[in-house]
Write a sequence for this structure.
């Protein structure tokens, strides 16, 4: 439940941050005019539509949640990014700017309700690109509250 709450919070945050940034959408035919739109932000997995209708997009998903002790919880979130650009130099640069932008925006906010962003953080452009779609990921960690005996006691009292 905490992981889903964090994902929802991050999705809303990124949608707001990137709402005015327009990126290219893949053309279905070479003769079509170029269309621009804001990057889509989804949690979990992309809806079952054609890939071309999803790009550009950020999909964020919890990859690991662990509790090291009664007061030490951690959630690792992966931000999968896909953008479209037919120019090889510009496509790679745009991808790297988005990977860095996600990291920078999240670290600038630092605290998301009950979650605090922590290190390590990793940015990875994928080795094999599906030109003209460019993909990569950002992996970030967040301190999260844990459910311990005292928390359970409080919850039971409220019920």
């Amino acid at each position: 439940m905490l992981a889903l709450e964090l994902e929802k919070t991050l999705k809303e945050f990124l949608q707001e941050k990137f709402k005015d940034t327009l990126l290219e959408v893949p053309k279905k035919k070479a003769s079509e005019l170029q269309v621009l739109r804001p990057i889509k932000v989804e949690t979990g997995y992309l809806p079952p539509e054609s890939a071309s209708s999803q790009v550009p997009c950020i999909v964020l998903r919890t990859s690991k949640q662990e509790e090291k002790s009664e007061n030490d919880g951690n959630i690792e979130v992966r931000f999968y990014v896909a953008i479209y650009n037919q120019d090889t130099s510009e496509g790679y640069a745009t991808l790297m700017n988005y990977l860095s932008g996600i990291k920078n925006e999240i670290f600038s906010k630092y605290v998301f309700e009950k979650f605090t962003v922590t290190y390590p953080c990793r940015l990875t452009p994928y080795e094999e690109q599906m030109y003209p779609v460019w993909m990569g990921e950002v992996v970030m960690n967040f301190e999260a509250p844990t459910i311990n005996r005292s928390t359970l006691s409080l919850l039971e009292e409220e019920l």
The longest helix spans residues 88-109. The radius of gyration is 18 Å. The chain has a mean pLDDT of 86.
